[in-house]
Request: fold
Amino acid sequence: MLEQLQAVEDKYKELESLIADPSVLADIERWQSYNKEHAQLAPIVAKYRAYKSVTQQIAEDKALFDEQPDDELRHLIEEELTELNAQKEELDRELPLLLLPKDPNDARNVIMEIRGGVGGDEAALFAGDLFRMYSRYAERQGWRVELLSQNATEIGGFKEVTFLVAGAGAYSRLKYESGTHRVQRVPVTESGGRIHTSAATVAVLPEAEDVDVAIDAKDLRIDTYCASGAGGQYVNRTETAIRITHLPTGLVVQCQDEKSQLKNKEKAMKVLRARLKARAEQEQADAVAADRKHQVGSGDRSERIRTYNFPQGRVTDHRIGLTIHRIDDVLGGDLDELLAALITADQAERLKQVNE
Reply:
C-alpha cells in the first residue's frame, strides 16, 4: 500500500510541474485535464503526507524514550505517543479506502424512478411516501428535485413517478436505494384493521450527458398526444404530451407534466439518455465482472432490500442486517444512518475483493 501511495505522490508532484509549465498553460484543454487529475489526487496525497509526518514523529519520540529521560519528560513523551498512535490508527483505516477505485458516476446527478408494485392502491401510496422521503432527504442535503414524469392515483399516490435529484455527490449516496422496498402496515383503505404487505421498486440512474450516449434521431419514434389528468386549461385540448420510443432497444419514455411540448420532449430525452446509459453499463458489467455475493447496492429490482414495518415502528435493511426503530424519521428524510452503514459495508466488501 505504501508503494502505491508513494507512486500517487510522485504523480501529484509531476502534475504540479506540468500545471506550472508555460507550454501547458498555453493549451487550455491540456491544462484543465492535468488540473482536474491533480485535484483528484490531492486528498490522497494530503492523508499520505500526514501519515508520513505522524510516523516520523513516532520514531523520533521512541528514540527519545530509549535515551531514558527523566520522569517528567518520559511522561510528556508517553502522552504524545498515545496521541500519535491514535492518529496513525485512524490514518491506517482511511488510506486503503482512498485507494479504492472511484465510481465514475459518483459526482453525477440522479434520475430516480419509483413504481408501485404488489399491493394496488396501497403500493401506489407507498410509492408516494418514498418519493416524499427522497425529496426531503434531498432538501436536507441542499439538492434540487425536479419532477420529470408522474402517473398519479386519485387517492394521492403514484403508479409511477420519475424525478431528477441534482446536487454534489447525489449519485454517490442515492445509488444504494435501488431495489424493492416493502411496507407492512394497515392501509387507509382497510376497514378491518388487518396489516397488509405491499411493495414499490426504486431505480437509481446516473444522469447521462449528451456526450455519454449517442442517440441517432432515426432510431426514435416520437408521438404526441393530449395530456390527461386533473386541472389545467391545456389538459385534453392540446397535444403537449410526448412519448419517445427508442426503436433499437424498445425503451419507451413519456412525459406530460409541462404545458410546453418542447419542455416535455427535453425531459423525456433526459430520462431516455439515463436509461440507455444504465443499460449499456449493466451489459458491460455482466460481460466482464463476476457476480459479487452480498453486494451492497446491486440494483437488482427484484431484490427485497428494505422493509418498513409500521406496527413495530422499524426500518430494516436486509442487505446489511441493520434495523432502525425510527420509521417516522426515516420516511421524513433522515437517511444518514442507513446510507452511512451501506457505504461502510460497500467499502469493506470492495477492500476484501481487492485483498483477495
Residues 217-287 form a domain with the Double Stranded RNA Binding Domain fold (CATH 3.30.160.20). The chain has nine helices and eleven strands. Residues 28-66 form the longest helix (39 residues). Residues 180 and 303 are 6 Å apart (CA to CA).
